[in-house]
Structure prediction request, 109 residues.
Amino acid sequence: MDTSDYKQRLLDMKQALTNRINAIDKDIRHEGMTADWSEQASERENDEVLESLGNTSEQALLMINYALKRIEDGSYFHCDECGIEIPNARLELLPFTAHCVNCAEEIEA
Ligand SMILES: [Zn+2]
Prediction:
């Protein structure tokens, strides 16, 4: 399987996130990123995906960086926890995920 499409999407998301973090940092430094988050997010590309994380931009950035590292070391298509292959459909939806659905549910539960 080819990782280049996923890598490009992750890099695009990373760029969008970095821009957003910089903007948030400038605009609402004193408030953090809670109330205004959904409004700002709706203006940007890849936002449905990023919002589905339910995390802050910094956390999302960490996940994206980790996914990029997993692409580099060849482990991208395999679950970090149990090692099974993560379905393409899941990676297309959540290109930054490091876990299969079962493990993700257990970790989040
Ligand atoms: Zn798993």
Notes: DSSP finds six helices and no strands in the chain. The chain has a mean pLDDT of 81.
